[in-house]
Design brief:
It is built from 17 helices and two strands. The protein has a two-stranded antiparallel ribbon with strand order 1-2.
């Protein structure tokens, strides 16, 4: 059954790569519409699959594809409208409800209710979610990304290259842009309401689709992007791993939890995620101001990495503690494993905030591609864990497995030290190949 989660995550990761490239060229609205429709269809399909495991598996894959636009693009849409950095939130409250639904009216209704809610959502998406990406008059750079003005089609003029000027105002156009974009000093006519209902309203970039599709892959070799993938993606993967084995630990002896009680175990991670967001907000501001004062009033993006220290404390403590207590629930009961699960999720949020803020601040020009790498890595890594996590725990035992996992995470967190020491290295400003 773990593969139902794994293939779902695989669908999100692969489709996210394609959808991000599509959004860069044609905007996001059509993808939100497509995603909502796919969620409705796949959820109804999953509920009707019955005992046909293959059918249910494919329904979960399609459901992941439908989810991909919302995971990959919502933050960018917020960035199009407001100059803020929004981050994902873990859906840890859902299992609490799903456990009760499964126990009361059957697991099929966990799919049917999603289909119903998404069906209610569809007309809202159609009528109240317009395209947020647009091309500014006289500026052919689309705001179709969370990093804004990523200079898809721009390059330094020869004069500015020769004198070393890298100010964004010195950029010149590199390619001819679509003729439906305004090039004069006046903005294009405001679209009518009926025009805003169309799935497409013109190209946002003249860059080739396949070029955008493959552009993220070389960035996996970029030290900062690789660091961000590890800091954010591995702890998300360990969270998925805990979710995979949680039912096996508590549904059987000695506690003999039912579906409802096992679902309630996600209340702790839900609280941990909320506290993680609050703590990350407080620490991100305080630590940055403190480091600026210590640095003579000069800001460096590496100051964002200070949050990894909190991830090291809470995330790794959660992994070690969960392995110890979940290995002997007869002795420790249900509370301590749930508490350490909450700590692990709080650490996951702290790492996600640290890596995302660092990428945006230090590598804004490649932020879209970097976040695409993060999306692919965390989902594909989690997919891989669903294949082997259960067998790994059966063969090695709960405590030994999580000792290994937690030690790996400690090593990953410590990678932030050489990253900080190389803050002035040429990696900082390297562009996308």
């Amino acid at each position: 059954m773990a593969l139902l989660t794994g293939y779902h995550l695989c669908g999100v990761g692969v489709a996210g790569l394609i959808f991000v490239a599509s959004a860069r060229i044609w905007g996001k609205r059509h993808l939100y519409l497509l995603g909502t429709v796919l969620i409705i269809v796949s959820s109804a399909w999953g509920g009707a699959a019955g005992k046909n495991y293959a059918s249910l598996l494919w329904a979960r894959v399609v459901q992941g594809i439908g989810l991909a636009p919302f995971e990959a693009l919502v933050n960018a849409s917020v960035g199009d409208l407001y100059f803020v950095h929004a981050l994902f939130g873990g859906a840890f409250f859902t299992p609490v409800i799903v456990g009760k639904i499964t126990h009361t009216i059957g697991w099929q209704w966990s799919f049917y209710l999603i289909a119903i809610f998404a069906g209610v959502l569809l007309p809202l998406v159609i009528f109240f979610v317009p395209e947020t990406a647009f091309v500014r008059p006289g500026d052919q750079t689309s705001t179709n990304s969370s990093s804004h003005h990523l200079n898809d089609d721009l390059e330094l003029s020869p004069a500015n290259q020769s004198n070393g000027n890298s100010n964004p105002s010195s950029f010149e156009e590199k390619e001819n842009h679509p003729t439906n974009h305004a090039t004069g000093p006046y903005p294009p006519p405001k679209a009518t309401y009926l025009q805003t209902l169309l799935p497409f309203n013109g190209r946002k970039s003249s860059v080739n689709f396949f070029k955008l599709l493959v552009r993220p892959f070389p960035l996996f070799l970029h030290p900062a992007v690789l660091w961000a993938c590890l800091i954010q993606g591995t702890l998300i993967g360990w969270t998925v791993m805990i979710g995979v084995v949680l039912a096996a630990i508590f549904l059987g002896p000695p506690l003999w939890f039912n579906e409802v009680e096992t679902g309630y175990m996600y209340a702790g991670p839900f609280v941990g995620a909320i506290l993680g967001f609050i703590l990350s907000g407080l620490l991100a501001d305080w630590s940055t101001k403190y480091m600026i004062r210590r640095n003579g009033g000069v800001y460096e993006p590496e100051f964002r990495m200070v949050l990894v220290a909190a991830q090291l404390v809470f995330g790794c403590m959660g992994l070690y503690g969960f392995g110890i207590t979940a290995n002997d629930v007869g002795r420790y009961g249900w509370f301590l494993p749930d508490f350490f699960f909450a700590c692990e999720v709080g650490g996951m949020v702290l790492g996600a905030v640290a890596s995302a803020l660092y990428i945006v601040d230090a590598h804004r020009e490649i932020a879209v591609e970097a976040f695409t790498c993060l999306l692919m890595f965390k989902n594909i890594f989690s997919f891989g864990l669903t294949w082997g996590a259960y067998d790994w725990i059966v063969s090695a035992g709960i405590s030994k497995t999580f000792y290994i996992v937690a030690s790996i995470q400690v090593g990953i967190c410590l990678l932030s030290i050489p990253m900080c020491k190389s803050s002035l290295s040429p990696f900082r400003d390297k562009k996308v190949p």
